[in-house]
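During the reporting period the student researcher (J.K.) took over the structure-prediction task from the postdoctoral fellow and processed the backlog of single-chain submissions. One of the processed entries is reproduced below for the supervisory committee.
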Amino acid sequence: MSTNRGIDVKTDRWLVPVLNVEEGGWKGLPVGRVEIVFGGGEVLGGDIGGGGEGLVRDHEGGMLVQECEGEVHCQMMVDVMRGLAADGESAIVWKRWLRELKA
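J.K. obtained the following structure tokens:
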């Protein structure tokens, strides 16, 4: 099986630990809600979202898999470094998550 970019998910050293977790492998993860946020313009965007399927299947806590259309990896930080407002979709998701951590 390969990704939408032709990377072999059975041998790639970065993807193997995430995409090849056996059923039940994420059970007992010692965290509450898990959020996977990625840009629609990311090279491995589809695979990042797909890698969340195992978490969705196994994790007993809350779950959010969010694709931010038209954004790239770390879009919010890229915007801030360029002097732009951090108000894109990923910025909204990250700011909400940080507020919830504080509460």
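The committee noted the following: The mean pLDDT is 79.
J.K. will present the remaining backlog at the next meeting.
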